[in-house]
From TrEMBL:
This is ABC transporter ATP-binding protein. SMART domains: AAA. The keyword Transmembrane does not apply. It comes from the Bacteria. InterPro entries: AAA+_ATPase, ABC_transporter-like_ATP-bd, ABC_transporter-like_CS, ABC_transporter_ATP-binding, P-loop_NTPase. PANTHER family: ABC TRANSPORTER ATP-BINDING PROTEIN. One of its GO terms (molecular function) is ATP binding. It comes from Candidatus Trichorickettsia mobilis.
Length: 307
């Protein structure tokens, strides 16, 4: 059974703005799914629709087979949400904030479980402090603890590391991976491409309310990623010889590098070898070779640019 199944989801506001346009998506139990897109693309609207905060105009959402409208109590009990905005009672303690959130879902008190969450999120030594006394990064961890308080199977993280420093961001990546290992399905939206590249199993790109692509991370990079062969030369070239014009070459580093751009899926196996043979025939000596694969950021820009 899929963790989340979304079919034909649409959301049009009264002013005619289409926030979601026929979104179809299935998320499997235990995976980390990263949703990428520019500001206003529909990321938060999609999350809020699944969580019941925004009412969709059309389409269906099922959470572990439960319709999110007809069986909303059961569906919602599976979900924990960490919103972008830090919304907590500033004068309440960390312990009481997380415990109260558990009670909202009708769960009986369980101090050992709350302690376990706070320890995992490095919040145990802050349990008696008021929320207002915490740093921004710690407040975000409290939001995660609140979302986990009722033991959900699915955790939504809307820009979870926005505004936190690099060290804390990497720490939170480790915590997300640990949560996934414990069986929690994680869906996150992010502006940080390296975040998706680091921890996601699968990636979806949304733009103008449309889900452009969903793909396993490695398959996406293999399918859409371009490669470069970088040839470091002994002597600089002023221009690329005419005999090499049939290859997709560029001069770089003030003529000290030849850069060959190619698509691994479309380029013939012997084309790189042919290029090197032609270079030798033209008496161009090179010191060494290096290859470079497109980054996820470059692929993302390419996809959004096309949509």
């Amino acid at each position: 059974m899929t963790a989340i199944s979304i079919h034909g989801l649409k959301k049009t506001y009264n002013n005619g703005f289409k926030a979601l346009d026929d979104v179809n998506l299935e998320i499997q139990p235990g995976e980390i799914f990263a949703l990428l897109g520019p500001n206003g693309a529909g990321k938060t609207t999609l999350i809020n629709a699944v969580c019941g905060i925004v009412k969709a105009t059309a389409g269906s959402i099922k959470v572990f087979g439960n319709d999110h409208l007809k069986d909303y109590r059961v569906a919602r009990s599976h979900i924990g949400l960490v919103p972008q905005e830090l919304t907590t009672d500033a004068f309440e303690s960390v312990w009481n904030t997380v415990s109260f959130s558990r009670g909202l879902f009708g769960k009986p008190a369980n101090s050992s479980y709350i302690k376990e969450i706070l320890e995992k999120l490095s919040l145990w030594d802050k349990k008696d402090e008021q929320i207002r006394m915490l740093s921004g990064g710690m407040k975000r961890r409290v939001m995660i603890a609140k979302a986990l308080s009722h033991e959900p199977d699915i955790l939504f993280l809307d820009e979870p590391t926005a505004g936190v420093d690099v060290e804390l961001r990497k720490s939170m990546w480790e915590q997300m991976s640990a949560l996934r290992q414990s069986g929690v399905t994680i869906i996150l939206t992010t502006h940080y491409i390296e975040e998706a590249e680091e921890i996601a199993d699968r990636i979806g790109v949304i733009n103008k309310g449309k889900l452009i692509i969903t793909e396993e991370k490695t398959a996406l990079m293999k399918k859409l990623g371009k490669k470069q062969l970088i040839i470091n030369l002994h002597e600089s070239l002023v221009e690329i010889p005419k005999q090499l014009s049939k290859f997709n070459l560029q001069l770089a580093e003030e003529g000290k590098q030849l850069v060959f751009n190619y698509d691994p899926l479309l380029t013939e196996d012997n084309e790189v070898a042919n290029l090197l043979d032609h270079i030798k025939e033209n008496a161009i000596r090179y010191k060494d070779l290096a290859t470079r694969q497109s980054s996820l950021e470059e692929i993302f820009i390419q996809l959004v640019g096309k949509s």
